[in-house]
Amino acid sequence: MRVYLESLGCRLNAAEITELAGRFAGAGHDVVESPEAADVIVLNTCAVTAQAARKSRHRLRTLHRRNPRARLAAMGCWVNYSPEAAAGISGVTWALPNSDKPRIVEILTGQAAAEPVPWEPGLGGHTRVFLGVQTGCDNACTYCITRILRGPARSRSPAAIVTQVQSLVAHGAQEVVLTGVSLGAYGHDLGLENGLAALVAAILQDTDLPRLRLSSVEPWDVDEQLLRCWESPRLCRQLHLPLQAGSDAVLRRMGRRITTAQFARLVERARAISPDLAFTTDIIAGFPGESESDFAEGLAFVAAQRF
Hints:
12 strands; 39% helix; pyruvate-formate lyase- activating enzyme; Rossmann fold; five-stranded parallel sheet; three-stranded parallel sheet; alpha/beta
């Protein structure tokens, strides 16, 4: 069977598609480069915003028009959000929620999945791979639907992740980006102490990966142990800390577990440990209830952090 795989939205969605490609290959199927060449088309959808949901609907229709003979599988967050709408789109054979992702190969082929064959990261000249290490989120940010659609935090075992990184390196990977819905909470559900920091240390110690990068980490999940990981030159000198608002009043309405003062102290401490560390962030402007003074306060705070 020839399978075309495509992802919309977050890095975790992209990582899941990479993983799924290996599972289809391990089951003896061909992963093809275009939807026109496929017998089955799989789209990992997104619903983080209304625009993302519209894009998911539009892309499913476009894929069906491009290859009407292929069976089409919609999976992921938009299916969780609007299962009936997903199932009702012309050409969609399967509308699969996030809970079905571990069984996608079995559902689409009717056969048990073989051991995953690592996706060749050198294909197309790419040597950077997104690797999902956890999914789900136990936070309660008021603006976020992903935590509802993905469910509670669930982590993969450290041993399985290290083994996969070793395999990716053997296939040519030069950089692996660890990603998840709540990456900083990695290992909490497994009872692991300093879960993400310990995982980073294990990857750096037990693999020959040239570069490791972290995707977004909530500021309350960044502790001294994690900051010390940047003492290794193999951990990319970049940290994405989602702030979301530079006003404490807005942060409280958002349900964020941090104040601007705490955030500023964290950035200061991180720069003390790793002066060349580059910081990036996310900001939501116009959050319900945000006043002109809140907005001005946020602008001043963001400027002071020197992202």
